[in-house]
Amino acid sequence: MLRASGTLEPIDAAGDPPLGLFDRRPYTGGSVHLAPGDTLFLYTDGVPEATNAALDDFTNERLVEVLRGSLSCRNNVS
Predict the structure, then answer these.
(1) Which of 7, 12, 16, 24 would you call most buried, defined as having the most Cβ atoms within 10 angstroms of its Cβ?
(2) Alpha-carbon distance 70 to 66, whole Å?
(3) Strand, helix or coil for residue 39
(4) Is the separation of the CB atoms in 22 and 12 below 8 Å?
């Protein structure tokens, strides 16, 4: 989660499998408070591992840079 202040706050998934992957498997729920201006960004584990033509990984660090860069675009979205 990216807070309006620019602080990145990862959400702990607690190790549960993806919802719906197994029939009748117990699921542990949770909640997160979103304040005005906060951004919840959901992605698969394949995003940081994606590579370019030179086989360079995208990485978690670059993903964070892209998310933080999106803060400057918020005023352009209605």
Answers:
(1) 16
(2) 6
(3) strand
(4) no
